[in-house]
Specification:
Layout: H1 4-10, H2 16-23, H3 30-54, H4 60-65, E1 70-73, E2 76-79, E3 84-88, E4 94-99, E5 111-115, E6 119-123, E7 128-132, H5 133-137, E8 142-144, H6 146-197, H7 204-228, H8 236-255
Parallel strand pairs: 4-5
Antiparallel strand pairs: 1-2, 1-8, 3-4, 5-6, 6-7
């Protein structure tokens, strides 16, 4: 019996999958899209946990030893001004940068936290997340001494490890599911061009199932890259090309006469 989970890897090699799912399937692939959204969201949540967990290796005591008092007013750091300090773990894989200069933020290929005048920036190898002080402090003014700073860093890292991955998972699943539904109808419409060229006339539900199946390699590979922390992504253009290539291959498989 074909399961949704088996389709995540069968789509890369099994020629029978096209006839099983497109021709003999039912509905418009909503269940497959939901499982796909869960798989991608889970990959993002796991990668987020591993990224935040790596921050535990930062030398927090050393980082705060010579740090000046930090004053937050009106949702930004007002003191110290024009200050820059950078720290990393022993292997220089995880960094913490405290920067109140006006120099533009530049992306890093390292994992770490960048504390700027107006926001905290969490940098993974592939993604950047920005948390403004307005959200973090709720508009309150705050003064951080060295002792408070060290305790706060430990608490922030621990809280992020526990809260951020599940919150991301819960938020990302429905967003991805809706996005994949939109994409399935978009590629379902695109299929008319290919079926016209190949002299095929599938039913409308079959077109949507074809689109769902064709989306799986692109989304699956991106999810796997996220999970492994590999700096390879299929963007919009390459994702479009990859999806259309798989769509053409599935249609061509359906067009070829089957031997018994």
């Amino acid at each position: 019996v074909m399961t949704v989970f088996s389709m995540l890897y069968r789509v890369f090699y099994d020629k029978k999958l096209a006839s099983e799912f497109i021709k003999n399937g039912q509905g418009r692939g909503g269940k497959v899209l939901f499982v796909l959204a869960v798989f991608v969201a889970l990959s993002i949540a796991i990668r987020t946990f591993l990224t935040v967990d790596a921050l535990k290796e930062l030398p927090v005591s050393e980082m705060t030893e010579n740090m000046p008092e930090i004053v937050f007013e009106n949702n930004k750091i007002v003191s110290p001004e024009n200050y820059y300090a950078s720290f990393s773990d022993k292997e220089s894989k995880v960094v913490f940068v405290f920067d109140t200069t006006d120099a533009p933020y530049s992306l890093s290929d390292k994992i770490g936290v960048f504390m700027r005048k107006d926001a905290l920036i969490f940098q993974d190898k592939n993604e950047t997340r920005i948390l403004s002080y307005q959200k973090l402090l709720n508009g309150e003014n705050l003064t951080l001494t060295r002792a408070v700073m060290e305790e706060l860093i430990h608490k922030i890292i621990d809280s992020l490890r526990k809260a951020l991955p599940p919150v991301l998972f819960v938020l990302v699943v429905p967003a991805l599911f809706l996005w994949y539904i939109v994409l399935s109808y978009f590629y379902g419409a695109m299929s008319y061009l290919m079926t016209y060229a190949l002299h095929l006339e599938p039913a409308y539900d079959e077109r949507i199932r074809l689109a769902v199946l064709s989306l799986m390699p692109w989304t699956g590979l991106n999810a796997l890259a996220t999970l492994l922390g590999v700096n390879i992504r299929f963007g919009a253009a390459s994702g479009l090309l990859l999806t259309l290539i798989y769509m053409f291959c599935f249609l061509k498989e359906e067009r070829e006469p089957k031997t018994v």
